[in-house]
Amino acid sequence: MNISAFFRLFQPKDKVFYSLFEQVADNLAAMSKDLVDGLKSEEAITEGFYKKMEDYEHANDKLTHNIYIELGKNFITPFDREDIHQLTSSLDDIADFIYASTKYILLYKSPVMPCYSSFASIINDSVLELKKAIYAMRDLKKPKEVFAHCVEINRMENMADDLFSKEISALFESNKEVLDIIKIKSILEYLEDVTDKCEKSANIIESILVKYS
């Protein structure tokens, strides 16, 4: 290895990592928006809609892989390698659980219930706040703005918890068949888990800011 190549290993790669995280945020925002649009109808979701969610999930997997490749290539990172790994993993979980939600709606042949759409709206709002937080993280120059977005994500997760409790209670009091109750409960759990993953990502971002602000 020549001397110039050696020194390149120690050059900060902030722009690479920030850019990749922003691409992940953009992909998640597009995915959550299409989730809202796809769950507006009360009919069963289509194969086409499911395929679109699958494509988003695969795109997120590729971006996640690219971040891990950059971690392996570079000694200097914008913040701790462990924090980068944790944030990458938590963002990937968001895509995974959105995809799983739509997969089981399709597999269970479940009609789209109004509560699915309500969860989709909270998910989309949470992801948009997460996107704003990630864009404001660049160079860690806007900590107050990032914190504000994280607080909003936490508030939305509480809304999702309340909605989940309400819908589960109503489900158990309904006249639906036991098998249908099991299917709907499973789907609601996946949808609620998405907001948990958004909150986890926000908590990781807050931890990074505490270390570096």
Quick overview of this protein structure:
The protein has 213 residues and is mostly helical. It has helices at 3-8, 14-38, 47-73, 81-107, 114-136, 143-172, 178-212.
Structure report:
- The protein is mainly alpha-helical.
- It has a single domain, classed as Phosphate transport system protein phou homolog 2, domain 2 (Methane Monooxygenase Hydroxylase, Chain G, domain 1), CATH 1.20.58.
- The chain has seven helices and no strands.
- The protein has helices at residues 3-8, 14-38, 47-73, 81-107, 114-136, 143-172, 178-212.
- It is globular, with a radius of gyration of 19 Å.
- The two termini are 36 Å apart.
- 34% of the residues are buried.
- Residues 1-13 have low confidence and may be disordered.
Q: What topology does this entry show?
A:
Layout: H1 3-8, H2 14-38, H3 47-73, H4 81-107, H5 114-136, H6 143-172, H7 178-212
Key features of this structure:
single chain; 213 residues; mainly alpha; Methane Monooxygenase Hydroxylase, Chain G, domain 1; 81% helix; disordered N terminus; PhoU-like_sf; Put_Phosphate_transp_reg; UPF0111_domain; DUF47 domain-containing protein
Total count of helical runs of at least 4 residues: 7
Indicate the overall shape: globular
Query: What top-tier CATH class fits best?
Result: Mainly Alpha
Helix share of residues? Answer: over 70%
User: What is the β-strand count?
Assistant: 0
- Detail the poorly predicted runs: 1-13
Structural class estimated from helices and strands: mainly alpha
Give a quick account of the main beta sheet: strands, pairing sense, barrel closure.
none
CATH level-4 homologous superfamily: Phosphate transport system protein phou homolog 2, domain 2
Intertermini distance: 36 Å
**SSE order, as H and E?**
HHHHHHH
Question: What is the CATH T-level topology?
Answer: Methane Monooxygenase Hydroxylase, Chain G, domain 1
Residues in β-strands, percent? under 5%
